[in-house]
């Protein structure tokens, strides 16, 4: 089975391939320029992306959206995570959280279209933001919060882990397993 994934993020594409391959699902890259809404929830954005892709005539496709959320702020940065990071970087994030709760979570949703049927799956990875910016910080392309996010149950940031170690904490991995179960039923 082939499942096109409408993403331009190579890291997301590799994770999808890794998780879905054991289910017999081969993930192919589908590079589309989709408009990302700046209102609503992660699920809302994912559904809107799916509407755009479906309007192009695809019958089988997967789209996703994700963001990081700070407990100190109501639903923020959320769907604006990429734009917020591009605007304020690590120093700005640290200033936002100065004197505030460091608790945070990644939240992501995947929408799937499979032969006319649609489904949306979501999950979270809880954790916290480091207290200080690491001196050797190097933003990961497509995953700028990984070097400052420590998942619950570990003492290391996601950036300090191997891809295999990250998988035990990955909300996307959990969601993709739900996708695989849904498709193979």
From TrEMBL:
GO terms for cellular component: cytoplasm. GO terms for biological process: nucleoside triphosphate catabolic process. It comes from the Bacteria. It comes from Melghirimyces algeriensis. The keyword Cell wall biogenesis/degradation does not apply. Keywords: Hydrolase. Gene3D superfamilies: 3.90.950.10. This is DITPase. Pfam families: Ham1p_like (PF01725). The keyword Hydrolase applies. InterPro entries: ITPase-like_fam (IPR029001), RdgB/HAM1 (IPR002637). Belongs to the HAM1 NTPase family. PANTHER family: INOSINE TRIPHOSPHATE PYROPHOSPHATASE (PTHR11067:SF9), INOSINE TRIPHOSPHATE PYROPHOSPHATASE/HAM1 PROTEIN (PTHR11067). SUPFAM superfamilies: ITPase-like (SSF52972). GO terms for molecular function: nucleoside triphosphate diphosphatase activity.
């Amino acid at each position: 089975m082939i499942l096109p994934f409408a993403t331009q993020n190579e890291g997301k594409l590799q994770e999808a391939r890794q998780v879905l391959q054991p289910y017999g699902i081969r993930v192919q890259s589908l590079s589309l320029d989709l408009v990302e809404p700046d209102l609503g929830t992660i699920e809302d954005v994912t559904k809107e992306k799916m509407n755009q892709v479906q309007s192009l005539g695809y019958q089988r496709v997967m789209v996703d959206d994700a963001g990081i959320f700070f407990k100190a702020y109501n639903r923020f940065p959320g769907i604006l995570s990429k734009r917020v990071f591009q605007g304020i970087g690590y120093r700005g994030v640290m200033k936002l959280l100065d004197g505030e709760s460091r608790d945070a979570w990644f939240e992501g949703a995947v929408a799937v279209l499979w032969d006319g049927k649609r489904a949306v799956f979501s999950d979270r990875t809880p954790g916290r933001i480091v207290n200080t910016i690491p001196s050797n910080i190097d933003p990961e392309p497509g995953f700028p919060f990984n070097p400052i996010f420590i998942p619950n149950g570990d003492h290391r940031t996601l950036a300090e882990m191997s891809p295999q170690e990250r998988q035990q904490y990955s909300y996307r991995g959990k969601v993709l397993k739900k996708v695989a179960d849904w498709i193979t039923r």
